[in-house]
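Morning!

As promised:
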Amino acid sequence: RKEVEQDPGPFNVPEGATVAFNCTYSNSASQSFFWYRQDCRKEPKLLMSVYSSGNEDGRFTAQLNRASQYISLLIRDSKLSDSATYLCVVNPYSSASKIIFGSGTRLSIRP
Amino acid sequence: DVKVTQSSRYLVKRTGEKVFLECVQDMDHENMFWYRQDPGLGLRLIYFSYDVKMKEKGDIPEGYSVSREKKERFSLILESASTNQTSMYLCASRGIGATGREAFFGQGTRLTVV
């Protein structure tokens, strides 16, 4: 079983729609969780960290479910510029060393 | 502005050549990483380093080695390049502690082995 698993998509949704992705992780001792965004032919960049209590940043909401070992990303009122690949990232140890990426979920927003 | 710089954007090498990919960061980060990214497989960790001269294998270390002689520089070495090592290689660095949790990436090196 992969340490971090994501639905690869693609998710193809109309502008203005709400879309949600999940990501599951296998190591119950994982401490830190993140969502990264990667545009075509670019390097990944941090979108947001995921906190135990959940967090929101504008149209983006991230949540953590430790019992079921998954994190989620919700995008409301999607924009054309949200088209990208969204990568789930897990730091499986208590120290800030190894970080594991999911294979990414591709999102395409259509006009 | 934080920066992770990879020495080349594009490289073409021949099978059997020894290949060096260099990565430099200017953020005084303890942790540095080498990933390769292939369609449908996402980013796979090759090696990482948490301190000078310290290294740990990632998920796919076979055919690769690394060197970290200075804190700011992390090199990936393909001992004898093969065509299945054709890929996009991404270097990242990351600090430690509550304030150093974001990983910053270089722009990537697209390596083609012919």
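Chain B touches chain A at residues 30-31, 33, 35, 40-45, 48, 50, 56, 58, 90, 92, 94-97, 100-103, 105-108 (CB under 8 Å).

Hope this helps with the figure draft.
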